[in-house]
Amino acid sequence: MQSFFHRLSILVAIVTLFAWTPSDSVFAVELNELTYITESSASFNYIRDGKLQGPAVDLLLAASASAGSPIKRENILVQPWARGFINAQKGPNTVLFSTIRTPEREKNFQWVGPIASESDVLIALKTRQITLSKPEDMMNYITGAVRGDVGEEILKDVGVSLQRITLLSHSTNLGMMLSAGRIDLWIFGEDGWRETLVSSDLDPANFEIIYRFPPKRYYFALSSDIEQQLVEKLQQAIDKVLMSNELAL
Q: What are the residue boundaries of the Solute-binding protein family 3/N-terminal domain, all occurrences included (predicted)?
């Protein structure tokens, strides 16, 4: 009988070992135990002088400190948008910002915000004298967008063919392509396109907005495995900081 129970205990141990894998999610219990991902892109989160900065970064740091679970700036990961977007969906315990909330993205995340709003715009060289009266007029031009960004979604929703869309990982490269005439139009956030051009040593005075899309709101996008109590904790902390008017967003 003793031999039977000994063999049974070994069997249970083996089953338990194979039932658990390192990839199993471990639920975070504090805000500073989550993984935070952003991109370097004007105007809400960007790297300047080798340091991650921007209103959305400041908001996150202030909110986490207010909630008693301070996040360190150096622990925020900076990744190309498309990669960060995929990683945030996979999780575990991952937060992506600043993320525009759209119907296409709704089911992929839990949402905290809104934290800001912005319109996407179409930018062109002034010397080209391009005019658009409606989005469908874009069909005659090559338009650049950041891969995985809401600008790409807008182009596809309008019906622009894939052959007339140029996708790159970084917005700075798109500004340079526009300046060189390799693309005709560039779709990007209205608040950040000028600063992006300046960072590439380009003069924004040589460019102009030729079309403005309706504004959309930015959020923190949280992977679906994050506990609801943490989602609510971050929302309350964000609301508290925004209501205090400590930061300009």
A: 39-247
Q: What is the largest distance, in Å, between two alpha-carbon atoms of the chain? A: 91
pLDDT of residue 14 exceeding 70, the answer is: no
Angle formed by the axes of helices 55-66 and 228-244, nearest 10°: 110
Instruction: Give the C-alpha separation, 42 to 175, whole Å.
Output: 13
Architecture in CATH for domain 27-117+217-244: 3-Layer(aba) Sandwich (3.40)
For the chain, how are helix, strand and coil distributed in percent, rounded to 5? 45, 25, 30
Q: Which residue has the tokens 């899309």?
A: 213
**CA gap 89, 85 in Å, rounded:** 6
Tens digits of residue pLDDT in 163-199: 999 999 999 999 999 999 999 999 999 999 999 999 9
In words, the CATH class of domain 120-214 is: alpha beta
Q: What's the CA gap between 76 and 88, in Å, rounded?
A: 13
Domain limits of the chain? 27-117+217-244, 120-214
- Amino acid making up residue 25: S
**Which residues are registered as beta bridge partners of 116?**
218
| Contact status, residue 93 vs residue 226, Cβ threshold 8 Å | yes
